[in-house]
Amino acid sequence: MKRIITATVQNRSGVLNRITGMLQRRQFNIESISVGETETPGISKMTLVVDVADDQKTEQLTKQLNKQIDVIKVSDITDKAVVARELALIKVASTPQQMTEIQGLVTPFRGAVMDVSKDSITIQVTGKPDKIDALIALLRPYGIKELARTGVTALLRGHQPQAHVTEINQFSV
Amino acid sequence: MKAEAKKWKEDAAVSMKQTDNLETGADLLIQSLIDADVEIIFGYPGGAVLPIYDAIYRSNAPFKHVLSRHEQGSIFAAEGYARVTGKPGVVLATSGPGATNLITGITDAMMDSLPLVIFTGQVANQVIGTDAFQESDVLGITTPITKYNYQVKDIADLPRIVKEAFHIATTGRPGPVVVDIPKNISEALPKRNYDTNFYLPGYQPTTKPNPLQIKKLSDALAKAKKPVVLAGAGILFADANEELKQFVEAYDLPVVNTLLGLGSFPGSNPLFLGMGGMHGTYAANMGMYECDLLINIGARFDDRLTGNLKLFAPNATVAHIDIDPAEIGKNVPTEIPVVADAKKALQALLERKGKKPEHQEWLEHLNTYKEEYPLWYERSEEAISPQWLMKKIHEKTNGEAIVTTDVGQHQMWAAQYYTLDKPHNWVTSGGLGSMGFGFPSAIGAQLGRPDDIVISISGDGGFQMNMQELTLLKEYNLPVKIIILNNGALGMVRQWQEEFYEERYSESLLDVGPDFVKLADSYGILGMRVDKETDVDAALDKIIAHDGPVLADFRIIRFEKVYPMIAPGKGINQMVGVKK
Fold it and tell me: Which chain B residue's Cα is nearest to A18?
């Protein structure tokens, strides 16, 4: 099962290596990992999407993350109300005739055309991973030349409803 | 000789703390070590640490530097020192090969939670990453095998980093911390004032138990019909052996020790069931198998203890007291987790004065196991029985020696037959199982506790892995008594080949070995060889009475095996070789 885990870390030398090394050594499967600075200088936030076998493994994962000296806080936000987003850049093969057609596909996804050349078009799209997956599926027939995804980054919503209907559950993580 | 060893320790204690005289970054390091109350540095010089060694030479620091003959000897000695004194072991080695020679010891300390602070030299910052001479990626290599590690990038950070390193190594669950110091840092011109304050928001170990969890545990204990306590090395790190004894005696609880927990509970106490695990006693393993409440205090449910997890304590409610939350529930599902320092948790349990369980029948049942299936061995005409020899050594040292072991058959025999009544006298490599550990760790133990008798028990295989350290016995006047259980084989490997590989003794018979008596002689220490049981008494008397180190080669029964045993993959209730 997929879990979204966030970790607030002290931005010290080697912290990313420490964490990914631990995950690899203990045989946790990382689907994506994204890191960036937070509002506090010297503090970074990591968002990990991991594939774990059961709750016991999830518990081990959060405990092993917490055990790292540089890790300040670990949260499993999978079952929380969150805003989770990912960005993808997709370079699609396209003839000048297909340009409009492709742009038509991208519009409902609120994607943006970032670059156009005589034989390709580069699209930027932001959203939940399943939305990005859907757009990629639509563009695949044209021929995807290159694809880059950032991995999910997420924040808890300001208000946490009692009911467990969450955005994250909707996109089947 | 003992007096001499003690003298420099006393000198160290009264020597004035060095204050001024900071010429280089290395001097600043020395000052930081003085501030950390370091007594001994176990080390070996080399290019990248020349400035540090120069600072040691120039300083009148109140610590001693002990020069090993291989960096692995340094770090194993530091582990022995840490184990018997409870203080952090300090190691210094050069960059590249110096640092990589430490890797086994660092991993060993990580597995067995020993507090070490390891300083490695590094090539200058300007050339890091260029594959410079004797450069190795110490941070990269040691990240997975340390509790934490540092590379000093700015001399202004050095005193704070050293302070942090000692703090991290010795608090919470102890472990090794590496500080990698580039040569330009140790050569740099230091300033005068440094800020050594640190704040580690991500490292705040929980030491006090949650009262609700203590209540839960106490309630479970009141209801239990078949309780068992499993006591691990966490008791020893927390100095909680007194509290454990009080707790256990207040509730009449049978106690099992892990290999590394030996000594945390008196081995001669009637409530002691013995060591658990692969070569533990039948009573200890059946106790854990049949119990309805298993209280684990400071043990990590290692696979050599639990055997097949499906058959481990299958009917028990498991309570686990550990300072490291990640150990709780890692291998064995745990109903009552208590994250705490063992001493504080035991104090809290004692304060509760909960109801005593009604389990007289259970105690009697376990006693029949103890009487029916005691540890056993057979003597032989051929050579010395190793188990009997262990008992003899115990008798001759009144069970009061510090015993260090290597890894293998002799380690298990020592664990089974050298009954420990006192804590902090047992030094062995458990988690990593590093051959070559026993003898150097005895050097560290003797340096740390010069007044105690230190017995280093090794096999002929493991001893040869670090016998270069024999020089140190003479050089530092260390009266370590080395007992080699010589069976001309890698005994444990050979035993497994006999039992599980149809006696194909692939590369496990050491038919050619050194003459250990001549070896001892060449290092200027007393050597002896003992072939027959009839000579053992006199030999041991001589070894113990001798004012100085001894290397004694005891010829044991070559094909003797360690029993009882849980075969790999089997459960703790499936021991073989439980009876003659």
Answer: B143
- What is the predicted pLDDT for the residue at B2? 52
Residue from B63, B147, B183, B265 carrying the catalytic annotation: B183
Q: Which residue shows structure tokens 């664990």? A: B415
Helix (H, G, I), strand (E, B) or coil at B231: strand
Say whether residue A23 is in contact with chain B using an 8 A CB cutoff. no
The partner residue sitting opposite A69, judged by closest CB among B203, B324, B329, is B203
Catalytic, B135? Answer no
In this prediction, residue B48 carries a pLDDT of 98
Q: Is B275 labeled as catalytic in the residue annotation? A: no
Burial label, B304 (beta-carbon count in 10 A; 0-12, 13-18, 19+): middle
CA–CA min distance A161, chain B (Å):
29
Helix axes B438-448, B71-85, angle to 10 degrees: 50
**Residue B326 with chain A: CB contacts under 8 Å:** 60, 63-64, 66-67
Find tokens 């420099």 and name the residue: B8
CA dihedral of residues B355, B359, B360, B364 (deg, nearest 10): -150
Rg of chain B over all Cα atoms, to the nearest angstrom: 24
Catalytic pick among B71, B290, B327, B533: B71
Chain A hits for B144, CB-CB cut-off 8 Å, are 21-22, 25
Instruction: Please say if B134 is a catalytic residue.
Output: yes
The answer to whether the CB of B113 falls within 8 A of the CB of B232 is: no
pLDDT value at residue B4? 55
**Residue B163, number of CB atoms within 10 A of its CB:** 17
CB atoms within 10 A of CB A5: 23
Closest CA to A131 of A103, A114, A106, A155: A106
Planar angle of CA B65, B66, B71, nearest 5 degrees: 115
| DSSP per-residue letters across B252-303 | T--EEE-TTTTTSS-TTSTTEEEE-STTS-HHHHHHHHH-SEEEEES----H
Summarize pLDDT for A116-155 with one digit per residue, the tens: 999 999 999 999 999 999 999 999 999 999 999 999 999 9
Give the pLDDT of residue B5: 52
Predicted-complex ipTM score? 0.90
- Asked whether the beta carbons of B336 and B223 are under 8 A apart, the reply is no
Q: Which of A10, A18, A64 sits opposite B201 (nearest CB)?
A: A10
Question: Does pLDDT of B132 surpass 50?
Answer: yes
Are the CB atoms for B469 and B442 separated by under 8 Å? no
B71 is catalytic: yes
Can B492 be counted among the known catalytic residues?
yes
The answer to whether the CB of A14 falls within 8 A of the CB of B143 is yes
Residues of A in contact with B203 (CB under 8 A): 69
Taking a C-beta distance cutoff of 8 angstroms, is the pair A9, A46 a contact?
yes
Is the Cβ pair A67, B324 closer than 8 Å?
yes
Q: Which residues of A touch B329 (CB under 8 A)?
A: 56, 59-60
Segment holding B441, helix H or strand E: helix B438-448
Say how far apart CA B228 and CA A107 lie, in whole Å: 67
Q: Are A25 and B143 in contact (CB < 8 Å)?
A: no
Which of A13, A56, A69 shows the shortest C-beta gap to B202? Answer: A69
In angstroms, the first-to-last Cα distance of chain A is 8
> How far is the C-alpha of B551 from the C-alpha of B458, rounded, in Å?
11
